[in-house]
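4.2 Preliminary Data

To establish feasibility before requesting continued support, the project team ran the inverse folding procedure on a target of 224 residues. The structure was first converted into the token representation described in Section 3, and no sequence information of any kind was made available to the design step. The complete token record follows.
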């Protein structure tokens, strides 16, 4: 993968041009995990959204002009989406529906992928009780929605009363504030314990998590 600022012919630097789509970056999604690099010279950030300007050999020209979001642009590569143009592999660009703002597209990559793995890594959650700790953040809200769509009963937590609607709109059945005796309130909603926990702050929540786990089937996934 190669990237240059404002130079479209940067695709000539690519070792596998057949599997690439150059695109103009309109918005960049920032992640707190993107603070290290394997390379001395780096343009950061993996996620972004924009418009496809050109395609490599073997890629349909129908992609040109499409609104898209991309992910992994700077994963194990020196150049990411913090630039005017970027070039990414074909499989890492997804068409963005017209009704979805570019702002949302730019934020889908790392949060969406992390949430998907956190919900589905241990198998089906259909008819399971899933606890999403921090269900109103970027990863948490995605996890709530994915678990809901997968047929789970979803209990989410958040810090502020005003944030509850975020998790409820995403599909949470119940949203609890983290203040007070959270474990007892979760236990009241899940008499047999929760089956699966999506956890974003394991160190802070481990006591609660261990008190509410079920005995039938249990998995806890830690998200960063």
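Position-by-position output of the design step:
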């Amino acid at each position: 993968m190669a990237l240059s600022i404002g130079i479209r012919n940067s695709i000539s630097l690519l070792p596998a041009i057949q599997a690439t789509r150059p695109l103009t970056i309109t918005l960049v999604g920032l992640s707190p995990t993107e603070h290290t690099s394997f390379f001395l010279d780096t343009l950061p950030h993996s996620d972004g959204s924009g418009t496809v300007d050109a395609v490599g050999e073997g890629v349909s020209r129908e992609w040109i002009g499409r609104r898209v979001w991309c992910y992994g642009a700077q994963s194990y590569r020196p150049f990411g989406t913090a630039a005017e143009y970027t070039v990414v592999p074909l499989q890492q660009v997804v068409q963005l529906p017209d009704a979805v703002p570019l702002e949302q597209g730019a934020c889908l990559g790392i949060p969406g992928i992390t949430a998907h793995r956190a919900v589905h890594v241990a198998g089906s959650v259909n008819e399971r009780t899933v606890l999403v700790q921090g269900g109103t953040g970027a990863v948490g809200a995605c996890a709530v929605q994915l678990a809901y769509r997968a047929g789970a009963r979803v209990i989410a937590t958040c810090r502020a009363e005003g944030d509850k609607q975020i998790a409820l709109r995403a599909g949470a059945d119940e949203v609890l504030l983290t203040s007070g005796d959270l474990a007892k309130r979760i236990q009241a909603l899940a008499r047999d314990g929760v089956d699966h926990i999506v956890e974003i702050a394991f160190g802070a929540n481990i006591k609660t998590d261990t008190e509410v786990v079920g005995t039938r089937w249990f998995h806890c996934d830690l998200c960063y």
